[in-house]
Amino acid sequence: MPLSSLIGSPDSLLLTEASPQLEKSNGTTILIGDIHSCSREFRELLELLSPTKEDQLVLLGDLVNKGPDPEGVLEIYESLDCLCLMGNHDLNHLEADEGKGTLSQESRRTRGLMSKSAYKRYLKAVRKMPLIFETPNLIAVHGALVTGLSLVEQPGKILTGKTTLEPSWKDHLDLDRPLVVGHKRYGNVPSEPCIIENKFYGIDTGCVYGGSLTALIMPTAEIIQVHAARDYTLDRED
Q1: Is the pTM of this model over 0.85?
Q2: How far is Cα 116 from Cα 202, in angstroms, rounded to an integer?
Q3: Cα–Cα dist 166/172, whole Å
Q4: Which phi-psi region, left, alpha or beta, contains residue 107 (left: φ > 0; alpha: ψ -120 to 50)?
Q5: Are 203 and 33 in contact (CB under 8 A)?
Q6: Is the predicted pLDDT of residue 147 greater than 80, yes or no?
Q7: Which residues pair with 222 in a beta bridge?
Q8: Residue 26 dihedral angles phi and psi, to the nearest 5°
Q9: Residue 36 contacts residue 74 (beta carbons within 8 Å)
Q10: Of the residues 13, 77, 139, 146, which has the fewest C-beta atoms closer than 10 A?
């Protein structure tokens, strides 16, 4: 059974209401990197991809924070038949709402950009976000995996990127399938994905920083990108 409802080890992340996500038997798996409130690029990428009902669409987390339009991203997400993994920014909103932490400056800014009703819907969506998506052909998480631990032993704080590992972690992977991650720009060129063929695909390519929003189509490993209109972090007053 796929571990898409995995909560992680007991040191964190006991609040999710995620339920098992059944993989689709036909079509492809389309994975999209960190969106970070960039609704324009998200919409443009989806138009290029034109996913069908047979395709499994997986967002790698960090739907919001840093960018200009969190509510717009939420509305697009709600219109899709897709799965979104939990990223560290999503987790920050959830933990603060449950009294397990405080909102970061980025999260406070995002909450202020959203209507109360939209923010409530976002929190409801986050509670359903799993930490791992897997099929017989791939594994996907937002953050990272700890070498030497099975999937069921992986700490939630590592899976979500709440704790960030040194970049070299990816060089020691020993999995039976490729791993797809977001969270961090691993490539020599930040706007391009980091690919170790048939082993590792890092597809956070810094859209919110003026890079690209990246989709990976599996099993063909085709890359589709939309370049960001600008560095949205320069718009912030904080």
Answers
A1: yes
A2: 34
A3: 11
A4: alpha
A5: yes
A6: yes
A7: 217
A8: -120, 170
A9: no
A10: 146
Q: Tell me: the pLDDT tens digits for 22-31?
A: 444 456 999 9
- The model's confidence at residue 7, banded by pLDDT at 50, 70 and 90, is very low
* Structure-block tokens of residue 152: 């069921």
Helix axes 70-79, 39-49, angle to 10 degrees: 30
Neighbouring-strand partners of residue 138: 135
E strands in the chain: 29-32, 56-59, 82-84, 133-135, 138-140, 179-181, 194-196, 200-202, 212-218, 222-227
The values of phi and psi at residue 119, to 5°, are -65, -40
- Residues in contact with 67: Cβ distance below 8 Å, sequence separation at least 6, in sequence order: 35, 36, 37, 38, 39, 73, 207, 208, 232
| Domains of the chain in sequence order | 29-235 (3.60.21.10)
> What's the length of the chain?
238
